[in-house]
């Protein structure tokens, strides 16, 4: 169990090796584990949690790195998280932190 400072709450790091690293697969994994928020960073790192917003929102352009599994989706940036809320049935990008 890792604490991730840009998201608040209980956070785990998922090593998604062997998976297609895209928003839908990672949402499913985090939901199965009981989390409601995912933070995607640097195209290849996923954090699961239940709250976010500890730090200020930044420009969406800072979260423009493509997901390694689906380049049309955004998976954060260098030290920036694309944050998706699982409760939002659209499953689309919410914020950049």
Sheet with the most strands: spatial strand order: 2-4-3-6-7
Could you tell me the mean pLDDT?
A: 76
Structural class: alpha+beta
Q: Which consecutive residue ranges, at least 5 long each, have pLDDT under 50? A: 1-5
Shape verdict: globular
Which helices and strands occur, and which strands form pairs?
Layout: E1 7-8, E2 12-14, H1 23-32, E3 37-41, E4 45-49, E5 51-52, E6 81-85, E7 95-96
Antiparallel strand pairs: 1-5, 2-4, 3-4, 3-6, 6-7
Report on this model:
The chain is an alpha+beta fold and 97 residues long. 10% of the residues lie in helices and 25% in strands. The strands form two sheets. Strands 2-4-3-6-7 form a five-stranded antiparallel sheet, with helices on one face. The model is unreliable at 1-5 (pLDDT under 50).
What key attributes describe this structure?
single chain, 97 residues, alpha+beta, 5-stranded antiparallel beta sheet, two-stranded antiparallel ribbon, 1 helix
Summarize the structure.
By secondary structure, the chain is of the alpha+beta class. Helix content is 10%, strand content 25%.
